[in-house]
Design goal:
The complex is a heterodimer of chains A (456) and B (336). Chain A has 19 helices and no strands. By secondary structure, chain A is an all-alpha fold. In chain A, helix 3 packs parallel to helix 7. At the A-B interface, helix 7, helix 16 and helix 19 of A face helix 4, helix 10 and helix 13 of B.
């Protein structure tokens, strides 16, 4: 038990902080923070699988998150029949051409020996394929995007349950990771970081600008939810009764019936949003716990030992007959798939898909700070990092505002410096997170909860 | 005549903008490559450091304008360059003293330094936004155009006009001066040689009596000069916005790697490769073909290889292709 004491303390502090937000700000805010903390925890677990277990540095988290979000749209949105009728066939032909190109290139690679001729042949296949794609897709895209551009203008999805899309998001991200891994995994650590960062940018720019796919920067709103809707809750009698029972003591105090009814209505509205958020928290918590059990089991299995051996000494592991390249690729795919699930969870939680919001700052670097701060190679540490850094990221502005007001309380309200500082309070989050990262890297380079090697 | 028109068209819309953009990227890429070669880490704070230097130039320009100081037809910002560089070098040395030097002395792996630079990126970004805010700032003054399209048409009698903005000429001119001084310094002076020796083999360089502290100091000074001038030129040509500068880090990295990281010549060249690729692949060639082809063959579509939305994606794709086929860059850089 003693070896877990610091884990328990750290998690207790985190819980108390979130409860404090609930008491002082509002429970809705506290639950939103909790939900985002849980999503961040899934992302950090994914990054931690790559960085902590295998020492692979992956700055492409943004790309996998975006693909996970795309999966939600492609799976859960109802198909747009007219768009399919107008351009569906052409788009399917395009998919066929792409698959054909891949097989043709593979065939050429296998059958013809490495030579200049082969390179030219492959280049010719790619160029011809691209021209064909353009020729076939251009009219289709135009007609798809012209179907009610304000509302749809895209092919739509499959109309399946939204929870299914979390798994699909994982597969999407894993597939992307397979391609990136094949291209970039041979590179040295910091090159890999840059290459993955740039490839993720390419992915996001495709999601942003291919409007026939998921409306691009026009955003998809009103996505399905695995939880009930507030408006339904507010009209269902069992929920109103529940709220009434819960607050009966408070309601007893009010004598006038109309006032009591108003009070109850307000309470039902508040409670419905909290209820929905709690549903999400339950779902997310389930995902986190399942992933935690799997990753813990994997970490202390023979496979986990093999991964650590590869991480700590690649040459030795390779000399012992471990296939380093294959294992790296596998772990790269697994970690990215977890990040993809997190991306799908996030879009489901928000109920909208906004490709324009995928920026490397928020979806790559902040996640990395979480991993480093929490503790590399330790799953509990990764989750804690997700919680702590997200909490800081959200609450930095109120904290900064409080400190600024305290420090400048002697200045008059019209003082220019004071106004300027108060206006720039939101940017103190970068400062706090950056300084936090620098301090942790300097004085506790293995994170708050460092990796523990249990002798077996 | 049609051929001349076509050439002028290309010059106006592709070659001159690409040369300008390439010069701006090249300065940044040399900055990345120097830090990578001598201090041995990938500096993720590149874009924000450039932004930091430019911020001082913007603020000083506003201050000079309020004092009524101007530089005639040239932008006032050029006058502020020395001061901005000074502040920038001060900032870089402070950061180096409190952050990077600890890891350098400990000989940490490059990945750790790269992560530390992410921390520096966060802090720099915060300082910039707190001081100047995230909004768009224009600080260009003086004469805007050297040659206007209408003047050019009158002069030559061609259909197509050629516009040359003063910022474009200033950018190319200043870049050439800065880069030639830097290459002269690296190749011909004793300090420059010692820097290259340190970059090639640190242990041997130390054995032959090169002072590592001096090498690091000079590197940061040169880096400060490059970052500030690169940032100011970009800001004059487009406009100054912190977020854009952070994003510019990506094509700059691409340029440095494409040219062969650790190799300043490669980085200089890589900047232009990226810029020309971005602009040539996203330009719509319709009018160009109308001029050079006979009437019967006139194109209907835009003849645009890729939509301008994919501007950034092109440079990254080039990077991926280079990494696949020539992992050490076009010019031989460091081994990956």
């Amino acid at each position: 038990m003693r070896q877990y004491s610091n884990v328990i303390t750290a998690y207790l502090i985190m819980t108390i902080l979130i409860i404090l937000v609930g008491v002082f700000q509002s429970w809705a805010i506290a639950l939103t923070i909790l939900n985002y903390c849980l999503i961040s925890a899934v992302m950090t677990m994914g990054a931690n699988i790559q960085w902590g277990y295998a020492g692979l540095i992956n700055f492409g988290i943004m790309g996998y998150t975006a693909l996970g979000g795309l999966a939600v749209v492609l799976v859960s949105v109802a198909p747009v029949g007219e768009a399919w009728k107008l351009g569906g066939l052409n788009m399917m032909i395009c998919v066929g051409i792409i698959v054909g190109m891949i097989f043709l290139i593979r065939y050429v690679l296998k059958k013809i020996e490495k030579s200049k001729k082969r390179s030219y042949l492959i280049a010719a296949i790619i160029v011809i394929g691209l021209l064909l794609l353009r020729f076939i897709s251009a009219p289709a895209i135009e007609s798809i995007e012209s179907v009610e551009p304000a509302k749809t203008g895209f092919l739509g999805g499959l109309g399946m349950p939204v929870l299914f899309s979390w798994i699909v998001g994982g597969f999407f991200a894993g597939g992307l990771a397979y391609i990136i891994g094949k291209i970039a995994l041979g590179l040295r650590a910091d090159y890999l970081a840059i290459a993955t960062l740039l490839i993720a940018e390419i992915v996001v720019s495709i999601v942003k600008h291919e409007e026939w796919l998921a409306r691009g920067v026009k955003n998809v709103i009103g996505l399905k939810r695995p939880a009930p809707y507030e408006i339904d809750l507010q009209t269902s009698p069992w929920f109103i009764n529940l709220v009434e029972k819960f607050h009966s003591a408070k309601l007893e105090l009010i004598n006038s019936i109309s006032e009591r009814q108003d009070m109850l209505n307000q309470m039902v509205i508040d409670a419905s949003s909290i209820y929905v958020k709690l549903c999400f928290s339950g779902l997310f918590l389930t995902v986190v716990i399942i992933l935690l059990i799997i990753t813990q089991k994997a970490l202390y299995s023979p496979w986990g030992r093999k991964m650590r051996a590869i991480r700590d000494n690649e040459e030795a592991a390779s000399a012992m007959g471990k296939n380093v390249v294959k294992e790296h690729l596998l772990i790269f795919i697994l970690g990215s798939a977890v990040v993809g699930i997190a991306g799908a969870m996030m879009v489901t939680h928000d109920g909208l898909f906004t490709p324009g919001s995928y920026r490397p700052m928020r979806y790559t670097f902040v996640i990395w700070v979480m991993v480093i701060v929490g503790g590399t190679g330790n799953n509990f540490g990764a989750i804690l990092g997700g919680f702590a850094v997200w909490f800081l990221w959200v609450q930095a502005a109120p904290i900064a505002l409080f400190v600024i007001n305290l420090l400048t309380s002697h200045l008059p309200e019209t003082n220019e410096i004071k106004i300027h500082l108060i206006n720039s309070a939101p940017y103190f989050r970068f400062l706090l997170v950056g300084i936090g990262l620098l301090l942790i890297m300097r004085y506790r380079p293995r994170g708050i909860l460092p990796e523990k090697i249990i002798k077996q | 005549m049609d051929l001349l028109n076509a050439i002028i068209l290309l010059l106006n819309y592709t070659v001159i903008p690409a040369l300008t953009y390439g010069s701006q990227l090249a300065l940044g890429a040399i900055f990345v490559t120097l830090v990578y070669g001598i201090l041995r880490f990938a500096n993720f704070a590149t874009g924000d450091m450039m932004s930091f230097g430019t911020m001082f130039a913007v603020l000083l320009t506003y201050y000079f304008q309020s004092l009524g100081i101007s530089f005639g037809v040239l932008p006032t910002a050029l006058l502020t360059i020395p001061f901005a560089i000074f502040m920038m070098i001060l900032y870089m040395l402070t950061i180096d003293k409190f952050v990077f030097s600890y890891y350098r002395v400990k000989k940490s792996p490059p990945v750790q330094l790269a992560m530390v630079s992410v921390g520096v990126m966060f802090v720099t970004q915060a300082i910039i936004r707190i001081i100047i805010g995230p909004s768009d700032k224009r600080f260009l003054d003086g004469e805007k155009f050297i040659l206007k399209a209408t003047e050019f048409k009158e002069m030559t009698g061609l259909n197509e006009g050629l516009t040359i903005k003063s910022t474009q000429v200033i950018t190319i001119f200043v870049t050439l001066i800065v880069v030639s001084i830097m290459f002269w310094f690296l190749n011909k002076t004793k300090t420059g040689t010692s820097m290259r020796a340190y970059s090639d083999n640190e242990d041997l360089a130390l054995l032959s009596g090169i002072d590592p502290k001096k090498v690091v100091l000079i590197t940061w000074v040169i880096a400060g000069v490059l970052a500030t001038i690169g940032g100011i030129l970009y800001g004059l040509d487009k406009s100054y916005r912190p977020f854009v500068y952070f994003n510019n880090m990506l094509p700059i990295f691409a340029a440095a790697i494409v040219g062969g990281i650790g190799n300043p010549y490669g980085a200089f060249f890589g900047g232009y490769v990226i810029a020309f690729a971005e602009i040539f692949l996203t330009y719509a060639y319709k009018r160009f073909f109308i001029y050079i082809l006979p009437d019967s063959l006139e194109p209907n579509s835009m003849i645009q290889l890729l939509s301008t939305d994919y501007k950034f994606a092109i440079s990254f794709s080039i990077l991926v292709i280079v990494l696949l086929f020539r992992p050490s860059g076009i010019f031989e850089g460091k081994k990956i």
